[in-house]
Design brief:
By secondary structure, the chain is mainly beta. It contains 2 helices and 9 strands.
Length: about 150
């Protein structure tokens, strides 16, 4: 029985490494709920910064509408004079909207999510600050408004 215990530290180290490696590069805000009113809008701020891997060149985002139906769920991003939009036009299919990239460099990006119907929608947002060399830069997110 003691011979099995010698593998325990290695198993723990492997689990820690796999968990850390999987979360270090993935940025997602999952299972958010956009309220039932027709004009409901969720508002986030994503900050891109140099975390030792280089300055951010752009913010890349996608939105996935988890709720089945034909309502449109859209995500808008604005930083300075740059702005863009991406829309998930088919809810509940686990397919994200087309990738949106805003090349605003380091700093704070304003992100809004809205919909076309007067019904609640659950959604996910994938967001990544990237360097010119396509390496993940520092990325943080703060929710400012939840409707």
């Amino acid at each position: 029985m003691n011979s099995n215990l010698k593998y325990w530290p290695w198993a723990c180290a492997l689990i820690f490494y796999c968990t850390y490696a999987g979360t270090a590069a993935a940025h997602a805000w999952n299972n958010e709920v956009l309220g039932p009113t027709a004009g409901a809008t969720d508002y986030f701020q994503v900050k891109c910064y140099n975390d030792g891997h280089g300055n951010a060149s752009r913010l890349e985002l996608q939105v996935n509408d988890d709720t089945p139906g034909t309502a449109l769920l859209s995500l808008q991003v604005q930083k300075g004079l740059l702005a863009g939009n991406t829309t998930d036009s088919n809810g509940g299919d686990d397919i994200y909207s087309p990738l949106l990239a805003i090349a605003g460099g380091n700093g704070t990006y304003d992100v809004m999510v809205d919909k076309t119907t007067a019904a609640s929608r659950q959604y996910d947002v994938s967001y990544h600050c990237m360097t010119k060399s396509n390496i993940h830069a520092g990325t943080s997110i703060v929710k400012k408004q939840n409707q």
